[in-house]
Amino acid sequence: MASEIVVLPGDGIGPEVTRAAVATLQAVGRRYGHDFRFQTHLIGGAAIDATGEPLPAATLAACRQADAILLGAVGGPKWSDPSATVRPEQGLLALRQALGLYANLRPVRPHPVALGASPVKPHLLAGVDLLVVRELTGGLYFGEKQRHADRASDLCEYSVLEIERVLRRAFGFARARRGKLVSVDKANVLETSRLWRETATRIGREEYPDVALDHQLVDSMAMHLIARPRDFDVVVTENLFGDILTDEASLLAGSLGLLPSASLGDGRRGLYEPIHGSAPDIAGRGIANPFATMLSAALLLRHSLGLEEEALAVELAVAAALDSGALTADLAAPGQAVSTQAAADAVLERLEPRCHVAE
Ligand code: NAD
Ligand code: IPM
Ligand code: MN
């Protein structure tokens, strides 16, 4: 049966890295005999320019019909005026909310290349393998917003149901991994965090007594994540804390350009995107790292299409490309960088080795 994949390239480096991820899925389709069908739609700044809306109705309708969605990035200086009423980021947030994608998985498993590229000391990085589960459709991002001439507010709100469902996902992943979950909050100050902590404790006691649950305040967590990253297995947290902690965690991998993500709801349909943004400072130059988006395609294969072997093949091909020295400017030594296209090709040729004619 065919799988319908909606592709949303978006803005900045979005189209450049998305192209590499689509090529990855096409290579997997050919190698394993799957019929993947792609439909490209507008989102973000590109959609604002074409239609006036960051998430046009046609895009949302296509996403609702799809088996999976692959997204590049949205945003950029052209649409960032603080007084703008329509913003690219609203399109992405509306999509996550409309599809009920409340659990955002952000795995961090540094490849040996990180030893050279990360500012973190190499002996701290060996054996790091953590999964951040970020709540994605609640909290400050979606609370009521008010703007007056001389003050503004963003309401942070969470219901027990919203906390429970993302925690169950995180506990489930912890159970299937090394059995450890750290729940990150700011319960010493925030009421939503106290509800979060209470709920985590209850769900842990009643439903996951086999998972070791710890709580950590977000400020000290920002430090522990760098000081002792190996100690963490699954980390679960609310929307804004998860956003910030995962950009920090990208330093463990050596670059923001290496971290993929999967946004999941209760069904199989998911949204797959790198954790980085549209990187306006390097957009259009063919130098962005495509691996975070190619690894997001691997997560798409795993979580929405149930193709574990294929997902692993992509992950191994990316690891082999990194081993071979196919490093873009964010990872390479000065003067040694390869282009987005060359880095992508290093993965694609490992996924689909060319037939060599015997001499
Ligand atoms: P960013 O993630 O776009 O860039 C941060 C830094 O990392 C930049 O120096 C950039 O060049 C570098 N970088 C990011 N991805 C890279 C890659 N694949 N290869 C090499 N280097 C890479 O964050 P920012 O500059 O704070 O935000 C720029 C825009 O992106 C903003 O409009 C923001 O809202 C948007 N954004 C979108 C998403 C998304 O669409 N999911 C995520 C984050 C930020
Ligand atoms: C991310 C981004 C988005 C977020 C923005 C662009 C809305 O930073 O996906 O991490 O904050 O969720
Ligand atoms: Mn972010």
UniProtKB/TrEMBL annotation:
Source taxon at top rank: Bacteria
Single GO MF annotation: magnesium ion binding
Pfam family, one: Iso_dh
Residues reported to bind Mg(2+): 219, 243, 247
Keywords per UniProt: Amino-acid biosynthesis, Branched-chain amino acid biosynthesis, Cytoplasm, Leucine biosynthesis, Magnesium, Manganese, Metal-binding, NAD, Oxidoreductase
GO cellular component labels: cytosol
Cofactor note: Binds 1 Mg(2+) or Mn(2+) ion per subunit.
Catalysed conversion reaction: (2R,3S)-3-isopropylmalate + NAD(+) = 4-methyl-2-oxopentanoate + CO2 + NADH
UniProt site (Important for catalysis): 141, 186
PROSITE patterns documented for this protein: IDH_IMDH
Keyword Manganese: yes
Binding-site residues, substrate: 96, 106, 134, 219
Cofactors named for this entry: Mg(2+); Mn(2+)
Family affiliation: Belongs to the isocitrate and isopropylmalate dehydrogenases family. LeuB type 1 subfamily.
Quaternary structure, from the entry: Homodimer.
Annotated PANTHER family: 3-ISOPROPYLMALATE DEHYDROGENASE (PTHR42979:SF1)
Listed name of the protein: 3-isopropylmalate dehydrogenase
Species: Arenimonas terrae
